[in-house]
Structure to design on (111 residues):
DNA sequence: AACTTGACGGTCA
DNA sequence: ATGACCGCCAAGT
């Protein structure tokens, strides 16, 4: 059986190291034509259905903006999670986005 | 079955 | 640099 799109997303997101972040688009690109960036967001949304602990807070949009903060319950939960991992956040944006950026297309060896 | 929505991203004015 | 548009594709209504 083929792995579902959401599960592939969960897999990639789970591989994001502590204190690092990536973007929806990068994940979508890593998965090829199996989905668009929007699909990644959708998959993460269904990840809360998954019992496993998915570090979804490490996924932001391409501008380093915390567009999905709304889905973490609290208004500032996502930002606090990221800050606790050493990232600099201001006004819902990751300041050191480029430095802490983690690209699955580069870091993961496609096994 | 048709229309709208969305945790996005690239292009163009 | 900012804002509008379009493409992406599954889910919900």
């Amino acid at each position: 059986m083929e792995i579902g799109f959401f599960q592939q997303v969960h897999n990639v997101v789970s591989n994001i190291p502590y204190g690092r972040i990536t973007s929806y688009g990068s994940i979508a690109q890593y998965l090829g034509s199996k989905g668009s960036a929007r699909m990644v967001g959708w998959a993460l949304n269904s990840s809360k259905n998954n019992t496993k602990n998915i570090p979804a807070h490490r996924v932001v949009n391409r501008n380093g903006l915390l567009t999905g903060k709304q889905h973490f319950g609290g208004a500032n939960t996502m930002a606090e999670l990221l800050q606790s991992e050493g990232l600099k956040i201001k006004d819902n944006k990751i300041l050191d986005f480029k430095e802490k950026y983690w690209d699955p297309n580069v870091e993961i060896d496609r096994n």
Q: What stands out?
A: The domain at 5-99 of chain A is CATH 1.10.10.10 (Arc Repressor Mutant, subunit A). Residues 27 and 104 of chain A are 7 Å apart (CA to CA). Residues 5-14 of chain A form the longest helix (10 residues).
